[in-house]
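Researcher: Sequence recovery benchmark, item below. Answer with residues only.
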């Protein structure tokens, strides 16, 4: 039986063309609405599947939408071939693969991964700091004592911040289509000389490789469409309707690209929720563009949500109302939230709101005391069966360090865990081995890229077998030593690829001190030689062969299997793809940030028996709030709410860790639009934006919960309050606890999910 659309979904189905904004609250069913709309455009309005361009934020969301549309069409006997539901970067890569030669792009261009970008920028920074005068000036700008002996940890942290500043400058430059020359001149005028040096080196190295980065993909498509009216006309003719999901996360470059494609027909539907915009601090994503769109075109508000029970919805709405009425800063009052409150679904499909669904759990003592109290509560809740089935539980925290702390505490209580901080890194390492080996196999000539791919594959493999969760200087030294060996001309390293060759040591090279590295490297290269003889296999079979050569752990094998399944779906959509095309698509997959959503596997799932009892407790998910976006759980734990550095209310509580980051963004935005430059202090503006985004992050955390929500905070002693004032819960936390929740003093039994 067909699902009955809700009021707002029915209004969306009446769309026939033009611009339309859809503002959707959490759990409103916006993905369902997009699927229903796309299906109707094809079934009732005569659009062909290939005339729809559906742009999403993640690859997993694109796959989900595409599969749901396919099933809906095939249920009515309508062919679904040609449905285009992709991420913006996948779309840009496809356009540039087909038409990039018109603007000078080389065939088979490489897409730089994050680690490669950081390595290039670090190389640039090292070159800049080789000058003693530059190094002294840089230390002063980085807040280090220029006259004191250099300490390793502060220096490495300062280098990391410089890389972040340079990455931000590159993102702003490319999104706002500024020239490299004017950007470097402007930054030099403001005394930020290391940033132009890093940008110049990075861009030169990128061009030398014939590579692009993610921002460059969007930039180059914008350049292509502005210069070649023929290509623009083809895209406008091809895509009769453009549907954009998660529109609150658009960047200036993405907005410009979409505007060009829809300029002829104007058929654009943008779906999003400005109240869930939580990435602006790290990227060029800006909810302002979606808000402006909502104010200038017809808009439908999807305010009915069936995800959460009434008590949880009341708390989320209470946060929105509290900020709008009581926040002392006007910028935060007006920009933190859009004033649309969540309503329960009219069809009665929300979870039942039991007594005690929302509880506040103050813990007397230290941070470790709170961790232990929350862990005990989670363990007790594992036995709770409100609907005769086990609860899905998640602990949502702010940092990866907190993920690890809660993981250890739960494992000590024998609670099964999927910790996204650790699990994501394991997935990422496995995926990097597969990706770099495939890249090695896809390159036909003995080029720099060919060698670099093999070295990067080995470094990822070495990380995996030694369970190294963080990239550090030793790994960088290992990579550097191997690159020196593999790029010098005194030894023909390719002889090592002979599977029947003799393992022999090479002297005269300064190898890192890790034991066994040389033997492991030789064996790794020998296996690569085996794989070279299997290049005739399909990409799917090659992935299986890579796993057979390098993986033994069941979890690693399951990740490889999941990548193979992803590639199989990819080839179904693009039967003309060759290995290099598969490699490029995989390189644009966010393995680190979306491990569970991409693979749907965990260490616990790979070791469970197939016929395991469905009533067994589910593994508890531990992840950062940013990683939880788009997910939902029966029971959610939000600890550490007293940390005003993570949940600030007043602007003075915001943490602006590196003012150079803000200064660079302010300088370049003013360079792009001098007539609309904000005269306000950029630090104050950044503090207000950070407070607003952190409030939205709390809102996202609250709205992940379906039936039960537990909010924890410490109650520090008098000494702690005086020495660490940020440990005192911000005003909005205590006010929400007073108005919208029952507090269990002392958190004696935080696992008591009902009374």
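Model:
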């Amino acid at each position: 039986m067909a699902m009955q659309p809700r009021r707002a979904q029915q209004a969306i189905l009446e769309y026939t063309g033009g611009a339309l904004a859809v503002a959707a609250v959490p759990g409103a069913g916006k993905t369902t609405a997009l699927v229903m709309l796309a299906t109707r455009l094809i079934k009732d309005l005569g659009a062909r599947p290939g005339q729809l361009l559906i742009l999403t934020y993640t690859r997993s969301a694109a796959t989900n939408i595409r599969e749901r549309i396919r099933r809906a069409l095939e249920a009515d006997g309508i062919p679904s071939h040609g449905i285009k539901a992709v991420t913006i970067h996948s779309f840009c890569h496809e356009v540039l693969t087909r038409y990039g030669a018109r603007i000078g792009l080389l065939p088979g261009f490489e897409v730089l991964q994050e680690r490669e970008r950081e390595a290039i920028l670090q190389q640039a920074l090292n070159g800049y700091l080789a000058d003693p005068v530059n190094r002294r000036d840089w230390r002063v700008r980085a807040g280090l004592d220029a006259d004191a002996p250099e300490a390793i940890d502060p220096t490495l942290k300062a280098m990391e911040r410089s890389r972040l500043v340079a990455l931000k400058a590159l993102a702003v430059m490319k999104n706002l289509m500024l020239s490299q020359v004017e950007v470097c001149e402007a930054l030099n005028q403001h005394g930020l000389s290391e940033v132009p040096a890093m940008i110049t080196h990075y861009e030169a190295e990128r061009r030398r490789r014939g590579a692009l980065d993610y921002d460059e993909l969007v930039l180059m498509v914008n350049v292509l469409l502005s210069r070649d009216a023929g290509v623009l006309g083809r895209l406008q003719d091809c895509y009769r309707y453009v549907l954009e999901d998660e529109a609150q996360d658009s960047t200036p470059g993405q907005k410009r690209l979409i505007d060009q494609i829809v300029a002829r027909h104007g058929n654009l539907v943008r779906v999003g929720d400005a109240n869930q915009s939580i990435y602006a601090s790290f990227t060029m994503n800006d909810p302002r563009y979606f808000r402006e769109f909502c104010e200038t075109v017809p808009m439908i508000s999807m305010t009915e949500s069936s995800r959460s029970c009434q008590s949880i919805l009341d708390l989320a709405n209470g946060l929105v109302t509290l900020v709008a009425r009581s926040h002392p800063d006007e910028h935060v009052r007006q920009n933190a939230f859009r004033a649309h409150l969540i309503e329960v679904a009219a069809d009665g499909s929300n979870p039942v709101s039991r007594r005690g669904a929302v509880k506040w759990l103050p813990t007397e003592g230290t941070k470790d005391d709170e961790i232990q109290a929350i862990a005990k509560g989670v363990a007790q809740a594992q036995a709770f069966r409100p609907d005769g089935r086990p609860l899905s539980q998640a602990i949502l925290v702010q940092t990866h360090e907190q993920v690890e702390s809660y993981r250890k505490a739960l494992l000590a209580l024998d609670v099964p865990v999927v910790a996204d901080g650790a699990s994501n890194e394991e997935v990422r390492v496995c995926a990097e081995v597969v990706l770099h080996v495939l890249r090695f196999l896809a390159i036909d000539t003995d080029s720099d890229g060919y060698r670099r791919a093999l070295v990067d594959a080995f470094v990822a493999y070495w990380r995996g077998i030694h369970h190294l969760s963080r990239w550090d200087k030793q790994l960088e030294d290992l990579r550097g030593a191997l690159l020196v060996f593999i790029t010098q001309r005194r030894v023909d390293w390719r002889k090592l690829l002979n599977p029947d060759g003799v393992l022999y040591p090479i002297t005269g090279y300064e190898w890192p001190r890790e034991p066994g590295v040389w033997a492991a490297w030789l064996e790794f290269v020998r296996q690569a030689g085996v794989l070279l003889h299997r290049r005739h296999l399909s990409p799917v079979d090659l992935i299986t062969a890579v796993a057979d050569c390098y993986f033994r752990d069941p979890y690693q094998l399951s990740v490889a299997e999941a990548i193979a399944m992803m590639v199989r779906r990819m080839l179904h959509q693009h039967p003309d793809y060759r290995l290099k095309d598969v490699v490029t698509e995989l390189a644009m997959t966010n393995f680190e940030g979306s491990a569970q959503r991409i693979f749907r596997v965990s260490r616990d799932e790979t070791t469970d028996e197939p016929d395991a009892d469905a009533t067994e407790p589910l593994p508890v998910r531990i992840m950062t709030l940013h990683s939880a976006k788009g997910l939902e759980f029966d029971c959610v734990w939000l600890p550490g709410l007293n940390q005003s550095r993570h949940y600030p209310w007043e602007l003075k509580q915001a943490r602006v860790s590196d003012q150079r980051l803000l200064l660079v963004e302010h300088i370049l935005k003013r360079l792009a639009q001098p007539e609309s430059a904000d005269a306000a202090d950029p630090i104050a503006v950044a503090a207000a934006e950070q407070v607003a985004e952190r409030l939205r992050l709390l809102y996202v955390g609250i709205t992940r919960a379906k039936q039960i929500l537990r909010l924890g905070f410490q109650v520090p002693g008098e000494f702690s309050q005086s020495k660490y004032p940020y440990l005192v819960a911000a005003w909005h936390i205590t006010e929400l606890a007073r108005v919208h929740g029952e507090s269990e003093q002392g958190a004696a039994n935080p696992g008591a999910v009902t009374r």
